[in-house]
């Protein structure tokens, strides 16, 4: 059946001139996110999930020309886990982008140059998986996250909490006990409460 399709357009409010955005980067959308403008008005972005879930892009559209380009382009050979393993955080009005990806076979964090769309470096790496990001501290250039499988000799499903610098340095474990953890932070992140348990160990 024919399907209705969203088509982003750019309007000049003063002149009323309309620019239709070339849809070659987002031809068969399963979903497209709302448009988000950079604070300086240079461009807007949206996220495109292709029908079939094997292509996912963060697309930027130039405010002056209406030209679209991919800031982030995920085309895995199997399936992009858009519902459980997607994370994006724009730093400094898009100067950098923190992005979660399974591209090396393990779910990890990457730092992108938001101006060029190039990967600056991989933030976390190894044969373990990032489960989720809890907080991004832009001022101190640090990421708080939880992960599984990093502790050798431990159940790989147990969840532990960590902190790491944007540069991929200073990885710090915030939990240690042999179990799966759930951490609640104080508003200033100076303190946290850690609740942990196992099947044979109550919380």
Q: What amount of the residues lies in strands? A: 35-45%
Number of strands: 17
Q: Please state the average pLDDT score.
A: 95
Q: How many H/I helical runs?
A: 0
- Cα end-to-end separation: 52 Å
What is the CA-based Rg, rounded?
20 Å
Tell me roughly what share of residues is in helical segments: under 10%
Q: Based on the structure, what is the oligomeric state of the protein chains?
A: single chain
Q: Which geometry do the CA atoms define?
A: elongated
Order of helices and strands: EEEEEEEEEEEEEEEEE
Summarize the structure.
It contains no helices and 17 strands. The protein has strands spanning 9-11, 18-20, 29-32, 36-37, 43-50, 56-62, 68-74, 88-91, 96-101, 108-113, 119-122, 129-137, 142-148, 159-165, 172-173, 180-185, 192-197. Strands 3, 4, 5, 6 and 7 form a five-stranded antiparallel beta sheet that branches. A four-stranded antiparallel beta sheet has the order 8-9-10-11, with no helix packed on it.
Task: Outline the secondary-structure elements.
Elements: E1 9-11, E2 18-20, E3 29-32, E4 36-37, E5 43-50, E6 56-62, E7 68-74, E8 88-91, E9 96-101, E10 108-113, E11 119-122, E12 129-137, E13 142-148, E14 159-165, E15 172-173, E16 180-185, E17 192-197
Antiparallel strand pairs: 1-2, 3-5, 4-5, 5-6, 6-7, 8-9, 9-10, 10-11, 12-13, 13-14, 14-15, 16-17
